[in-house]
Write a structure and sequence with these properties.
This protein has helices spanning 2-6, 12-21, 24-33, 35-46, 49-65, and strands spanning 70-75, 80-86, 89-94, 99-103, 109-113, 120-124, 128-133, 138-142, 148-152, 159-165, 168-173, 177-182, 188-193, 203-206, 210-215, 219-224, 230-235, 242-246, 249-253, 265-269, 275-279, 284-289, 293-299, 315-322, 358-364, 371-373, 377-381, 388-393. The protein is mainly beta and 396 residues long. The protein folds into two domains: 2-47, no CATH class; 72-393, YVTN repeat-like/Quinoprotein amine dehydrogenase (Methylamine Dehydrogenase, Chain H, 7 Propeller), CATH 2.130.10.10. The chain is globular and about 65 Å long.
């Protein structure tokens, strides 16, 4: 192995075959050993088409069966309100205004940031951590030292969405405005009214060329990024609680869609405004769409998730649905405007009862659970124990 590693270009095909036969735990250890090895494994396995196909199949099996998943846990100082996964860390925004950063490998707390009040949503990159809060502030810290770099007071109501995209910080607020801030200079580049109704913005998400904002008034708006020109308005059909953009698709979910006779999870084409899929699910407060799957947090019954119940410990479930073959990002039909996608047709439904492509995790709660996922990671709060979070690593 030492000879092969010293001559990686000459023996790369042999190294690739060896890596494909290693078990998940060994691969994880190699990735965590140093940044050079992590980048090498990433390139060797995920950026090679033959190896990628093999790993994708293993990854799907790991998500659906949890047989090879490595399970662990950590406990924050208060209930978790929002989470993000960044390389080797998990960033947690807590309900008491604190942000905590935990190492994914050691599950040790690296930083604690305590400059805000109220529930905090978070995002981060290699240089900065950004927290937005129900106290209407935007705080930016140095990622390595934890020093507070700047506090912005540009929103006049609770801030319910934050994303770091390329070299910009994008935030949305219940005052209906979106702000775009340069992540290096911390200069405000844009601050504009995106939603004029009384509800403001409930969530937003970004990609390399669009910002998608949603509100409880059943509206999605698509803006160019970073110029913030209005591209289109989409009738979302339901009150939007969460927005997730994946390439040309955007998934939205609602706690109350079914009460209005509409699906609780819908997938749209960002560039045409067409409805691509609807999912007949229970009340949902979180959705994350990636190139492989959709992860949602839904009520286990017919109740509305996150509200007060007669039952002391209502049940929610983390639902994992693998994308059907005709809903891939490479699907040539997705980008084409369709005259029928907005109608209720059999092609517009996603079969959520297909047991071969779904799995679920049940959770009892009082405070609504928090969930975040990446292609190989799932992290969710355990509401029965304050601050406790479960971590599942599905690396195949």
């Amino acid at each position: 192995m030492e000879v092969l590693w010293q001559n990686p270009l000459s023996y790369e095909h042999i190294m690739q075959q060896i890596f494909l036969y290693l078990d998940s735990s060994t691969i994880r250890s190699l990735k965590c050993s140093n940044s050079e090895m992590r980048n090498y494994v990433q390139r060797l396995l995920w950026q090679n088409s033959k190896a990628q196909k093999c790993l994708t199949n293993k990854l799907k099996n790991s998500w659906l069966t949890r047989q090879n998943a490595e399970e662990s846990a950590f406990q924050c100082s208060d209930d978790v309100y929002d989470m993000k996964i960044l390389h080797d860390v998990i960033i947690c925004g807590l309900r008491n205004g604190t942000i905590e950063i935990w190492n994914k490998k050691t599950l040790k707390k690296e930083l604690s940031l305590e400059d805000q009040h109220g529930s905090v949503q978070v995002d981060a990159n290699d240089d900065i951590v950004v927290g937005v809060s129900s106290d209407s502030t935007i705080c930016v810290w140095n990622r390595k030292t934890g020093d507070l770099r700047e506090v912005f007071y540009i929103h006049r109501a609770s801030v319910w969405g934050v994303r770091i995209q390329d070299n910009y910080i994008v935030t949305g607020s219940m005052d209906g405005t979106i702000a775009v801030i340069d992540a290096e200079t911390l200069v405000i580049k844009k601050h504009f009214v995106a939603h004029e109704n009384e509800w403001g913005i409930s969530d937003l998400d970004t990609s390399s060329d669009v910002i998608v904002s949603g509100c409880f008034d059943r509206i999605l708006r698509v803006w160019s990024f970073p110029d913030c020109e209005h591209l289109r308005t989409i009738d979302a059909k339901h009150a939007v609680n969460c927005v997730s953009v994946c390439k040309e698709l955007v998934a939205t979910c609602s706690r109350t869609g079914k009460t209005a006779g509409q699906p609780n999870v819908i997938i749209w084409n960002v560039y045409t405004g067409d409805m691509v899929r609807s999912l007949d699910l229970s009340s949902a407060c979180f959705v994350k769409l990636d190139k492989d799957k959709l992860v949602a947090l839904v009520a286990a019954g017919d109740t509305i998730i996150g509200t007060h119940h007669m039952v002391k410990w209502p049940i929610a479930k983390v639902l994992i649905l693998y994308r059907p073959d005709d809903l891939r990002s490479s699907d040539s039909n997705i980008n084409k405007p369709s005259k029928t996608t907005s109608k209720t047709t059999s092609n517009g439904k996603w079969d959520v009862c297909d047991g071969k492509n779904k799995t679920e995790i049940l959770l009892r709660y009082q405070q609504t659970p928090t969930v975040i996922s990446s292609r190989t990671f799932l992290v969710y709060s355990q509401p029965r124990t304050p601050g406790m979070c479960s971590v599942l690593d599905f690396w195949p």
